[in-house]
Amino acid sequence: MQNKKKPYNFEKLEDDFKKRREFVLYLGTGINYSKEFNFSWDNLIEILLQHAVSMMPYKFNMDDLSREKKTNIIKQTIGENAYLKVIQHFLYKNYTHDLIEKTCENYVNHITNNNNPPDNFLTLFRIADLILHSPNINEIVTQNYDQFLEDAMLSLQKNDKYKKYIQKKYSDETFQRIEAIKPITICDWKPNPITKNDINIYHVHGFIPKYEAIQAPPKGNHVVLSPDEFYEDSKNVYSWQAATQMHFLTHYCGLICGLSLEDFTSQRLLHYVKNIRKGNLYYITAPGKDTEKEKTKQKIINIMHTKNGLSVIYDDNYDFYEIYKLIGDL
Fold first, then answer.
1. Do 192 and 185 touch, CB atoms closer than 8 A?
2. Model pLDDT for residues 163-198, shown as the tens digit of each residue
3. Dist. CA 177–CA 197, nearest whole Å
4. Is residue 87 part of a domain?
5. Is residue 73 part of a domain?
6. From 100-104, 189-193, 212-216, the region with the lowest mean pLDDT
7. Taking the CB of residue 8, how many other CB atoms lie within 10 A of it?
8. Angstrom distance (rounded) from CA 103 to CA 193
């Protein structure tokens, strides 16, 4: 991989990092990729739909329904307070403290001794590592409901071998940063003070923790799941979610990871800031499948993203893991 030419736009991204330009990360479910577990948005919708169907007096085949219709059926059949519990079970049923600690240890051994990478959450830990050792990243916008990123960061911060690795590879300033900072979760129902010296993680589509009981959120607070909730977010330009994203997209460089950019809210925000943005906005896209048809399709999508002002990081010669290794080493 060392002899390969770097992916398109990657050297521009490197240059922005070397110049210490302030970055905001925009994250989606793609960063949670694991070989053993499927945390994708599509899989979550199918699990919720199965739960909804089980509550109906008659069974229907809903395979051909659009995602919009599926999420509306889920919301109307299960009800918000109930489907939050289903989502919580989906996210955390296999997610244990031992799993995250073992994955952390495997990841640290991978980056320090070149051991085999962990099967689960490799991309998640690369992103957590990048955040911790990059002084120009202090703000994270995530569409994910889970606390996986917060846990990965805390796990790395407690790992003595990781801290020794950081102290040897980077400056004393970076080591001191890792010792001092902490991830701060920001969401509707769990407000926290926004600080300059910590990592603020904005859960703009809602936050579902593992250990705390979920109650019906107060009026005005919600988990974004169905199209009507996307539309409400889009309409309410004064919400903290919209205002936060508009501010960051306008004034900072950005790196988009694990997001498809198919939802209306993301497209609207990107359209609004296209001509007023002050920093480069980079978007990592997964390489297309092996067929020429899929590769061509991905290249057409990338052209559309480029016309919308994104600097797409993509290369047929790099697989998903290779691109994120480059990202983790920034």
1. yes
2. 999 988 888 888 888 888 889 998 876 666 666 678
3. 9
4. no
5. no
6. 212-216
7. 14
8. 30
